[in-house]
Design goal:
Blueprint: H1 3-35, H2 38-69, H3 73-105, H4 112-117, H5 120-140, H6 143-173, H7 178-210, E1 214-219, E2 222-225, H8 226-243
Antiparallel strand pairs: 1-2
Length: 244
């Protein structure tokens, strides 16, 4: 094993260490929210410091690999993608920290029927599954698992849109509770962002494996790469001109 191979392997181990920590944070953070459990929320806040330390270690190791070994091709894609994946993990940690703070600041439980209508449990379960799927795709180098994560994001977007409508109506009907409902709306938006970060991680896994950058575009139910989008743009423009 070369020095570069050894460094890349150690880098992969560090990323998986961060991934395991993030999964624990997700599980405890979402459970703290659903059960309004302040003890779990405090655990999430306490563990956040470990995420910050590990984030810094991974970034420094990436810098070392780039500076000393000048990787090329797939190895270079791997290092660049690890930098982005690590950043997304750190952003997930920040979102969970915000949720934990909110749990500690909630003054009274929300009506169960409201939480049911918001599909909060379904949203957290799907989002947690997306993050786990993105992590598994990285660990197994499985591009198809990454694409599964992309597809799930539509469900989260739908729940988020409906939640905004429901909470705005709740504020209009109960203006005295506006602050509490706005706080819950912000929490739901953080969950939606976590799902977006999972998609970003999955996208980097596909880039490592295939060397293609995928965005959340669909054609006939299939995800397409930016390269394919760019290739079809002139044809689409011509079609518009001919039909006008």
């Amino acid at each position: 094993m070369t020095y570069l191979e050894s460094e890349l392997q150690e880098l992969r181990f560090k990323v998986m260490e961060m991934a395991e920590l993030i999964q624990v944070q997700l599980s405890h953070g979402f459970l703290a929210l659903l059960d309004m459990n302040p003890d779990l929320a405090r655990e999430v806040l306490h563990r956040e410091k470990r995420i910050d330390r590990l984030d810094l270690k991974i970034d420094k190791r990436c810098e070392k690999v780039l500076a000393l070994y000048q990787p090329v091709a797939m190895d270079l894609r791997f290092v660049f993608s690890v930098i982005k994946i690590n950043n997304n993990f750190e952003l997930i940690g920040d979102a969970l920290k915000y949720i934990a703070h909110c749990v500690l600041e909630f003054k009274e439980p929300y009506p169960p029927e409201l939480l049911t209508s918001l599909q909060l449990e379904s949203m957290t379960q799907t989002t947690e599954g997306m993050v786990r799927g993105a992590i598994h795709s990285f660990h197994r180098r499985n591009a198809e698992e990454s694409r599964w994560v992309y597809i799930q994001d539509d469900k989260i977007d739908d729940i988020n849109r409906q939640a905004q409508i429901i909470l705005i109506q709740a504020i209009q009907l109960n203006p005295e509770k506006a602050e509490a409902y706005i706080r819950l709306l912000l929490v739901i938006q953080r969950i939606e962002r976590i799902a977006d970060y999972a998609v970003s991680i999955a996208r980097e896994v596909v880039f490592i494996i295939e060397g293609k950058v995928y965005r959340h575009h669909k054609r006939d139910g299939m995800l397409i790469s930016e390269e394919e989008i760019n290739l079809t743009e002139p044809e689409d423009i011509n079609d518009i001109s001919e039909n006008s």
